[in-house]
Amino acid sequence: MTLLPGRTALITGAASGIGAAAAMVFAGHGARVVLGDIDEKGGHETAARVNQNGGEAVFVPADVTSARDVADLVRATVDRFGQLDCALNNAGVDGVVTPLHESTEENWQQVLAVNLTGVWLCLKYEIGQMLESGSGAVVNVSSVAGVVGFGQGMSAYVAAKHGVVGLTRAAALEYATRGIRVNAICPAAVRTAMLDDSIRQGVVTEEQAGALQPMRRIGEPTEIAETAAWLCSDAASFVTGHAMAVDGGLTAG
C-alpha cells in the first residue's frame, strides 16, 4: 500500500538512524523528501541512497536549534517541490548520561535545545506553511522516556521528551479545526547510533536493551519510520494529539 503518493515530506535528523530510515520509507510510499541535518556528509549520503533507489530526495544542511536554519529548510522545501504536506521532526541527542546532581547546565541546555526547542521551531515554521495550503500532518519523535520516567542519568533527556509529548498535544488541539494533524511517536530501544552511545557509556548493554521490551528484542529504525509514515497519511486522518508507543510492549505493563 502506497501511503504518501505525490506528497512532499520534510524529515529532520535524516543523516542516520530513524531519520535515514524514514527517508527511504517515505520515498517508498511515494513522497518526495527533503532531508535536514547538521551532518552534511551523512545527509548527502541518505539523499543519494533515496535517489539511487528510484525516489526523489534533496538534502539541506540545517541545525534545528537555529530559527533561521529551520525557516530556510521549510522555504527550501517549498521552493523545490511547491508544497509541504507532512513532516517528521526527528532530530535529537541523548546528551551526557550522568546523575542529575553531577550534570552540567551546558548539557541540560543542549539537550533541551535540540530535543524540545528544536521541535518547537520546526512546528512553528512547518505549521505556518501548512496553514497557507490548509492541510498537513506532523509527527514529532519523542520516546518511551517521554511517557514514563527513566533514571540512569537521563534527567535532561526525559524532561525534553516529556515536553515533546505535551507540545504535540497542545499543537494538535490548537490546529485541529484547521486541517493540520500533529502526533508523536514514542520509540523504545531502537538500533541506532544513539543506542550505541548508551551502550558505550555503560547505561545499558545490548542484551539488557532488548530484554526491556516484552517482545525481547531491539526495534529497527524502519519499524519506527513505517509508523510515522502511517501517521502522516490519510489512513490516519482521524488521529491527532496522540503519543503512539512503538516499543515492543514496554509501556503496556
Layout of SSEs?
Elements: E1 8-12, H1 17-28, E2 32-37, H2 40-52, E3 56-61, H3 67-81, E4 86-89, H4 105-133, E5 136-141, H5 155-175, E6 180-187, H6 193-200, H7 206-212, H8 221-232, E7 243-246
Parallel strand pairs: 1-2, 1-4, 2-3, 4-5, 5-6, 6-7
Helix pairs in contact: 1-2, 1-8, 3-4, 4-5
Short structural summary:
Helices cover 46% and strands 15% of the residues.
Verbal overview:
There is one protein chain. The chain has 253 residues and is α/β, with parallel strands linked by helices. The model has no long low-confidence stretch (mean pLDDT 95). A 7-stranded parallel sheet has the order 3-2-1-4-5-6-7, sandwiched between helices. Helix 1 crosses helix 8 (221-232) and helix 4 packs parallel to helix 5. The radius of gyration is 17 Å and the shape is globular. It has a single domain, classed as 3-Layer(aba) Sandwich (Rossmann fold), CATH 3.40.50. Strand 4, helix 4 (105-133) and strand 5 (136-141) form a beta-alpha-beta unit. Helix content is 46%, strand content 15%. It is built from 8 helices and 7 strands.
